[in-house]
Design goal:
The complex is a heterodimer of chains A (about 130) and B (about 350). With about 130 residues, chain A is an alpha+beta fold. Chain A contains three helices and nine strands, in the order βββαβββββαβα. Chain B is built from seven helices and 19 strands. Classes of the chains: A alpha+beta (about 130), B alpha+beta (about 350).
Chain lengths: ~130, ~350
């Protein structure tokens, strides 16, 4: 998508990652419109292993554009229960649809309360303005 | 995206609309690069040829009037200070195009070694903007826009752009046909706009890098430095030791005795994108390091160049690249990595 967009139903991490909470125990993660725009055309997504444990604020995956590589930071802690395999062949979906087909992983949350500390869309937009 | 990067004091766009799009425009149609950061030095006088034979690695006597030639500028120990094009504009008049980051050092080097020669060395970098128009259709689109005849590959011709004198050079850094225009900065913006209207795609540093890497053109500061001689960089073809240029003895020795390492182009087999500085491994042994690495938009895989132990630089050799802790299988390839389907 070419226009900046930060959906209201997501929680945001200040390292430009989003989390979509699904029930109390699960969440889907991805990178924000800002992150994919700054990175440019994504040509490679290096996902974590299924079952891997990830820590809030730590890198859990890499996305690469032609020019640069970027760590992807976990907005919350948990265990990887699904990775978006389709991105292996079509990593550009991260650019085209960062909140939809460009999702990165699905996680079983080990500390769901961490969601409280994340930003809402308005707060994230404000962060980008500063 | 509008990302910019500072290069030797110049603010340069990495990309305008996306590296892949720009890359593909140059491979299939026509793209243009504002490379005004490149430096220009004029060398003129009865001693010009003799002086340039001393400082440039190639046989400058072989450049006819209106001709162009690629050379290294070597230190006495063979280390590469810069790589550059020399254009012969007249009987004893040459124009040298330098890399921006090395321009001042090149000038100082020329100043030091031109003493005793009947030659004037002028820094004319402020006089020229530089526009590289590259791609299979670049020449035709540019000829139409300027309404001039353009010189063939590896030649230079005086032309007019916006009624101002300019130089058209049949050279480039992409592996495609094309022209580099050296022109009055005043007329650079209008010709850019006109070419844009003619469908020429503006390209940034990102595409410039992927294009040159696919055809294995070295970049000073990566494949070339004062720590490397032209032989290990695979540039023996532009060294004419018989001219006695500065560094020729070291280059002759490297050619005769071989070098410990050689520059090897390689492709990643499968996933992974190599980056500058990644270690190269043969089994458990570290045998070299990547000097340039990227995702190749034409080949759609990781590609790069690395200095490796000389016996491992043969095409077909299987190596591994340590990409941030993950070992990626790579195979040494022959130059160029990308070849146009004919």
């Amino acid at each position: 998508m070419s226009e900046a967009d930060y959906p209201d139903d997501l929680r945001y991490h200040d390292q430009h990652d989003w989390a979509r909470l699904e029930g109390d125990e699960h969440a889907v993660f991805g990178i924000t419109w800002y992150a994919q725009d700054a990175l440019g055309e994504v040509v490679f997504y290096d996902p974590p292993e299924l079952g891997a444990t990830i820590q809030k604020d730590a890198s859990y995956a890499e996305v690469e554009s032609v020019k640069a590589v970027s760590d992807v930071i976990a907005p919350m802690s948990g265990e990887i229960v699904a990775v978006n395999d389709a991105l292996e062949d079509t990593p550009e979906k991260i650019n085209q649809d960062p909140y939809g087909d460009g999702w990165l992983v699905k996680v079983r949350l080990t500390a769901p309360q961490e969601g409280e500390g994340l930003l809402d869309a308005g707060e994230y937009r404000k962060l980008l303005e500063n | 995206m509008g990302q910019n990067r500072a290069v030797a004091g110049w603010e340069m766009p990495v990309t305008y609309e996306g590296i892949r799009e720009e890359h593909s425009a140059v491979r299939t149609h026509a793209g243009m690069f504002d490379v005004s950061h490149m430096g220009e030095v004029e060398v003129e006088g009865p001693g010009a040829l003799e002086f340039l034979q001393l400082v440039l690695s190639n046989d400058v006597a072989r450049i006819e009037i209106g001709g162009a030639q690629y050379s290294c500028l070597c230190q006495e120990d063979g280390g590469v200070l810069d790589d550059l094009f020399a254009y012969r504009l007249g009987g004893d008049r040459y124009l040298i195009v330098t890399n921006a980051a090395n321009h001042e050092a090149d000038l100082a080097w020329f100043g030091r070694w031109s003493r005793g020669f009947d030659v004037i060395v002028r820094d004319v970098a402020d006089r020229y903007a530089m526009l590289a128009v590259q791609g299979p259709h670049a020449r035709a689109v540019l000829a139409r826009a300027l309404n001039v005849e353009l010189p063939p590959r590896m030649h230079v011709a005086p032309v007019h752009v916006g009624r101002r004198p300019a130089l058209a050079c049949g050279t480039g850094y992409t592996g495609e046909d094309g022209v580099e225009l050296l022109l009055d900065p005043e007329v650079a913006t209008p010709i850019w706009a006109e070419l844009l209207d003619s469908g020429v795609v503006p390209c940034g540093l990102g595409a410039r890098d992927t294009l040159r890497l696919e055809v294995c053109f070295p970049l000073h500061g990566h494949e070339l430095s004062t720590e490397r001689n032209p032989i290990e960089a695979g540039l023996g073809w532009c060294c004419a030791e018989e001219t006695g240029f500065l560094g020729s003895q070291a280059v002759a020795a490297a050619r005769a005795e071989g070098t410990a390492e050689k520059l090897a182009p390689f492709l990643i087999e499968g996933a992974g994108i190599p980056r500058d500085g990644n270690p190269v491994l043969a089994g458990e042994e570290r045998v070299g390091a990547v000097t340039s690495g990227t995702y190749s938009p034409s080949l759609e895989q990781g590609a790069g160049m690395a200095y490796v132990r000389a016996d491992l630089a043969e095409s077909g050799t299987e190596l591994e690249i340590d990409v941030r802790g993950k070992r990626r299988a790579a195979r040494v390839a022959s130059r160029p990595l990308y070849r146009k389907a004919s």
